[in-house]
């Protein structure tokens, strides 16, 4: 028995991206006297700096707190996608918060805390760190969703809070049971115990895994735990919708694959259930989106539908599913953020507008119409845009793991998806004939324009040269180390 | 040079978006002419050999292209018809900026389809060509275009996605390192899986070809497109299904193709007859042409599925030149619309004042219904000759469609161009200027290759024999 005082293993370098973001959050908290614009620009700078520090950590595989915090390539790739989405969201917020009566520095403080929590999820090496990250992210998210002083926003926020906390509670139970069964919180150690059969109680472990699956199901909007999403996404201010439907989702997926890819890959029990949930999500999300007339709600359902496609990557072998997931999430961030950002400058109110109002946009604002069309067609998965490769990669990953029927189902649902994406896209190119629907007109927004153009460039660049990103992501070593290694 | 040939139209399309209006037309036609010249130059050099570079190295996706044989023939026909379509666009379409840009962008997609020797690249080009077609329909279509557009897009993607799964499957199950065709051919998939993968491919090709019962998008697509017929002419270039079958599906899945041969031949023969029968009942020239195209594509399918060298040659010949005369016929319908304001087949008496239009249209129809001496004849005759050696009854069934074609084409023609012009209708002006060339030049091509088929056959035949031998078919 070693009774000497143990000094915790605190390495600063792997924490740097987190600390920079946290510093940004603290700055935003203290900067009440400053104009919101200044705070937001400071926040963007902090995020950029954090991203830069992540790039310097690439291939270093550093850990801190005895493996509780891991800055491996896995964490960094998810972290970078989160930062990209967060910067886009902040850029859009610079133009749209005034109209949404969110124009005060608390917005940035909450936003930056939330991002800090997300990075903690991506960097987590055990269940506790992951949970702390998830809670920081979620708590800030609940407030953001209800920050606007309208009934709709409050209602959405409450709904998000209630269902989100139920999700968290179930997740915590799952963590507790998993700890009970394996005696450890660390992802690597759990995987090792399962591999060597050193599990105290298999029933407990399976129950724990399924409860965690349900908990994460809430967070990523996997059916049947998705019901809150259309209401919350639809009811929240549009810039918050952008944040929730892209950045938060990326982070939740990072946690999902951390837990199920690295701690529980040997456990077959969850993948059978997950398969059914993914299939249900594909059907419900896509058929739900088909019936929406409001463009904002359509995008909300589309976010659910994409959870289904992303779920295919979770089921696959991590070496193929991991890169596919990161690539898809990056493409998803660009195309969804682009579409929602355009929604933000087109909408007459925070409720969004009917799809029919898009008619003839091409003749009023050709540039915006073309970019929105690119976003929608990319969401539908048409080449040569980024979304196509995302789909190809996740299909391939799931196919190789034997989920052929599920891939065929996903393909059929892509046809359904095409119908609801192509309709608004085509409407924009049709001349206005009847005058009953008031067509939308874009309000100017310099920062939003920067965000939109960046998203468009991202979609096209990732579509034409997917190797740019995939080359970085597909070293098998990276995923085996991150997910299988102790 | 092949890469220039492939991407020049797209580059020109991007350039057009930045040019002022008055320059667009000249630049577009110029680019299309240069592109055609590049194609002819490639032809004189005997085509472009296979080149390959990794695209997404880690996942085995390559940029592998080749332009020889049937690919080159179809690419040449495509770039020829692009010039014709563009010339007519400038004359007949108002606000034609988006149209010419789309036509040029689509050209790259189509040429890319014919050049691709990597399945993922093929898929990308296959779908990329869809986007400009949707844009043309959305911007220039008729009142009910939304339904037609969604139907067209959904049908196409339905087939394509099944093909995408097959593409993934053929690489993974065969164990090939890349998606390049030669690697896949070296690592074939055997057994029952081959049949499933073949069916996945067939779904995509049958939508595009189109083959009964996946043809329902076709008539609406043509009916709702711009009356000028330019979008339709591009649409007929779109019939890449037969080509995809020949280059990818049949070589990759030989056993499955042979097992399913009687069934597929039967389906193709039925499509040919069914298309002709429905065409007979149409009173709208565009729908009539759409169903006539369906009927012809049934014959193409019959030729390809026969797995017989003569029939396959005929199928590819028909595929190539059907583009020319059907494309021109769509433009002729556009000219009719420009004069009388509709495309009904019940006009009467167009011949009396618009003799040149009527005469050229009739000659193009002769090419379409396979009158000897015109390009359609060689294709259809070879298909039937070859198919007869494999299955006489199905060849007979398919052959009935050529008789039916004469019936529907001549009946409709008679109603529109002969008969008596109704009292009180406006006088129909005859062709002027570039319109004459738009119809006469494709007709000249149809006549030339109807009389002297060797240059085209030289491109097709060397590739058909080995392909069929590899299949274990032949006669």
UniProtKB/TrEMBL annotation, chain A:
It is found in: Cell membrane; Endomembrane system; Membrane. InterPro entries: NADH-Q_OxRdtase_suN/2, ND/Mrp_TM. One of its GO terms (molecular function) is quinone binding. GO terms for biological process: ATP synthesis coupled electron transport. One of its GO terms (cellular component) is endomembrane system. Its EC number is 7.1.1.-. It catalyses: a quinone + NADH + 5 H(+)(in) = a quinol + NAD(+) + 4 H(+)(out). Residues 124-414 form the NADH:quinone oxidoreductase/Mrp antiporter transmembrane domain. The keyword S-adenosyl-L-methionine does not apply. The chain crosses the membrane at residues 12-32, 39-58, 74-94, 106-123, 129-148, 160-188, 194-218, 239-261, 267-287, 299-319, 325-346, 367-390, 402-422, 446-473. It is a multi-pass membrane protein. Keywords: Cell membrane, Membrane, NAD, Quinone, Translocase, Transmembrane, Transmembrane helix, Transport. PANTHER family: NADH DEHYDROGENASE (PTHR22773). Belongs to the complex I subunit 2 family. NDH-1 is composed of 15 different subunits. Subunits NuoA, H, J, K, L, M, N constitute the membrane sector of the complex. NDH-1 shuttles electrons from NADH, via FMN and iron-sulfur (Fe-S) centers, to quinones in the respiratory chain. The immediate electron acceptor for the enzyme in this species is believed to be a menaquinone. Couples the redox reaction to proton translocation (for every two electrons transferred, four hydrogen ions are translocated across the cytoplasmic membrane), and thus conserves the redox energy in a proton gradient. This is NADH-quinone oxidoreductase subunit N. It comes from Deinococcus yavapaiensis KR-236.
UniProtKB/TrEMBL annotation, chain B:
InterPro entries: NADH_Q_OxRdtase_chainM/4, NADH_UbQ_OxRdtase, ND/Mrp_TM. Its main location: membrane. It is found in: Endomembrane system; Membrane. GO terms for cellular component: endomembrane system; membrane. The chain crosses the membrane at residues 72-90, 97-115, 121-140, 152-173, 193-216, 237-257, 263-281, 288-310, 316-336, 357-378, 390-413, 434-454. Residues 116-398 form the NADH:quinone oxidoreductase/Mrp antiporter transmembrane domain. Keywords: Membrane, Transmembrane, Transmembrane helix. GO terms for molecular function: NADH dehydrogenase (ubiquinone) activity; NADH dehydrogenase activity; ubiquinone binding. One of its GO terms (biological process) is electron transport coupled proton transport. It is a multi-pass membrane protein. NCBIfam families: NDH_I_M. PANTHER family: NADH-UBIQUINONE OXIDOREDUCTASE CHAIN 4. Belongs to the complex I subunit 4 family. This is NADH dehydrogenase subunit M.
